[in-house]
Design goal:
β12 and β13 form a beta hairpin. The strands form 3 sheets. This protein has an 8-stranded parallel beta barrel, surrounded by 5 helices. The protein has 3 domains: 280 residues, Alpha-Beta Barrel (TIM Barrel); 171 residues, Peptidoglycan recognition protein-like (Lysozyme-like); 39 residues. It is of the alpha/beta class. The chain binds zinc ion (ZN). Zinc ion binds next to loops.
């Protein structure tokens, strides 16, 4: 993943580098010259603008957004940073920042641009604090905005400082720290937006540098030969980022053309020899344009159809509403399950608990909210047990049932382990009725049916769930809806009509619906029998 630049000047040298390297991402500080923006946009790269402002008071974020809007309106950049820089990265301030960053992303949407949020400094926020920023992550992931992180190495190992492990298993606390963030999101089942490294390089993170000069130039003399010079390190980092090409859209080296002398040690534009080395190293990496951020969820006109009401109508006495008895709590680790756009729902995911059939919703709740999972409540929306359907997680929430896809799925789980056990008829019937109810809601609310999949059939899920003995029913339920019936031709066989009506009468009687049975008999069956017998 070729290195982009964080540009504040030296535009001619920046242009030469960009023409030679075609990096997937280029970032501009305050001024984004039209020719450079068009150059990068032209080959499909991502152009990002940051408006710099000393004042990062959370109480004056509105004013900051107005400054950004003014700058962005006249620019063709595709993305704008709409978040304070390396600030408000913990505790209550981080929670507040999450809300403001959502406002920033909405501004970006109004301007037809991608919002870039977070803008967290090296190693921030603390992994235990991420949940405070969760609303912004969920919003960004849903709408195709980007999460910005800064990664600098330092000391004798430069960009390798603190990196342990090889290949995709490599993790860092400075560079490659974003992988720990992705690990957290995976465990917490939080949808993570795509990541862009909006500052990177080598800083004086350790006290080895005698003077106050900062940046790779000051650090270079520390690196042993096997670590390599800055271009070697950057190429190694670039190859590692490319391993996450589906999660990271690009990265930029901080300080190109920076005017302020305190950034002189970072400024590649004043180091022709290193700039040439860097250009050559980067040109040896595959030339890939920035992956296009996911399209925002198409606005679906969701009709306000009461999901619970539909369940009641389809499931009757089988349905048990457990939402008040097993309520969502605030997880000390992950916060609360977030809300979601109903229009994004496209799949019914079927699970098993992989435990005993006798496991009650209360037991599942205690397990999911307990020390092992630490979730906010049961990870599913509906839990079938003993032929009953328990509504355990409000359908308007994205829960913890399909990693990375939670905003899109309604999860139905059947108690039991169907890698070995057989499905009880009563549970099979409950699942059929439940899927039928959800589809009826989807048809009425979204104007379309949902896909039906076993958990392990969904992309990126390595799991045996819901088990080989449950999958055939899932496949049956996934069957395409009957298309338009063929036009009826020929004369009806009244024998068959009479038989069906008699059958209908018997079903109604069996269900104790005597009045309805009498109605069918009086209104239709008698007539059909008369015609059948030619009377
Ligand atoms: Zn599952």
């Amino acid at each position: 993943m070729r290195m982009g630049l964080h540009i504040q000047g030296a535009y001619d040298k920046a242009e030469a580098y960009i023409r030679a390297v075609r990096p997937p991402v280029v970032k501009f500080l305050d001024d984004a010259p039209v020719t450079l923006v068009n150059l990068v946009n032209g080959y499909g790269g991502l152009t990002i603008l940051r408006v710099y402002r000393e004042d990062q008071d959370l109480g004056r974020f509105d004013e900051y957004l107005r400054d950004i809007e003014r700058a962005a309106r006249g620019s063709a950049v595709r993305a704008i940073e709409v978040s304070h820089n390396e600030a408000h990265q913990a505790g209550a301030e981080l929670a507040r920042k999450a809300q403001l960053d959502i406002e920033g992303m909405k501004l970006a949407e109004r301007l037809g641009k991608i919002g870039v949020v977070g803008c967290f400094s090296v190693g921030m926020p603390d992994l235990d604090d991420w949940h405070l920023y969760r609303p912004a992550l969920e919003y960004a992931a849903k709408r195709g905005h980007l999460l910005a992180k800064h990664e600098y190495g330092g000391g004798r190992l430069g960009m390798d400082m603190g990196v342990v492990g090889d290949g995709k298993a490599a993790r860092g606390y400075f560079c490659l720290r974003y992988r720990r963030d992705l690990d957290w999101a995976h465990r917490a089942m939080v949808p993570m937006p795509k990541i862009v490294i909006t500052e990177a390089g080598i800083d004086d993170l350790t006290p080895h540098v005698p003077d106050k000069t900062r940046g790779y130039k000051a650090a270079t003399h520390l690196h042993p030969p096997e670590v390599g010079d800055y271009a070697t390190q950057a190429a190694r980092y670039a190859r590692r980022l490319a391993e996450d090409g589906d999660r990271v859209v690009g990265w930029v080296d901080f300080g190109f053309g920076a005017q302020d002398p305190q950034w002189g040690g970072f400024n590649l534009a004043t180091d022709d020899r290193m700039l040439e080395r860097m250009t050559n190293e980067m040109r040896r990496l595959p030339d890939v344009a920035a992956p296009q951020p996911p399209k925002e969820v198409p606005p679906v006109d969701v009709k306000p159809i009461d999901f619970y009401g539909v369940l009641v109508r389809h499931l009757g006495a089988r349905l048990v509403d457990q939402r008040a008895t097993l309520p969502d709590v605030t997880s000390p680790r992950y916060g609360k399950f977030g809300g979601r756009l109903l229009g994004a729902i496209d799949t019914i995911a079927v699970h098993h608990t992989a435990g005993p059939k006798s496991q009650t919703p209360r037991q599942v709740y205690d397990f999911h909210t307990g020390p092992q999972r630490q979730w906010s409540g049961i990870g599913y929306h509906l839990l079938i047990q003993g032929g009953r359907v328990h509504y355990v997680g409000d359908m308007t929430t994205a829960r913890a049932c399909v990693a990375d896809l939670n905003p899109r799925v309604i999860c139905v789980c059947v108690a039991g382990d169907y890698t070995t056990e057989r499905l009880d008829d009563s549970d099979a019937e409950a699942l059929r009725l439940t899927v039928g109810a959800i589809q009826a809601w989807a048809q009425a609310a979204l104007g379309r049916r949902l896909g039906v999949k076993g958990h392990g059939e969904l992309p990126g899920q390595a799991t045996a769930c819901p088990g080989g003995n449950l999958l055939p029913l899932v496949r049956e339920l996934a069957g395409a809806p009957p298309t338009k019936p063929a036009p009826v031709t020929g004369k009806p066989d009244m024998g068959k009509v009479a038989w069906a009506l008699e059958e209908a009468t018997r079903i109604l009687e069996r269900e104790g619906l005597a009045a309805e049975a009498a109605f069918v008999g009086r209104q239709y069956t008698t007539d059909a029998i008369r015609r059948r017998d030619g009377r």
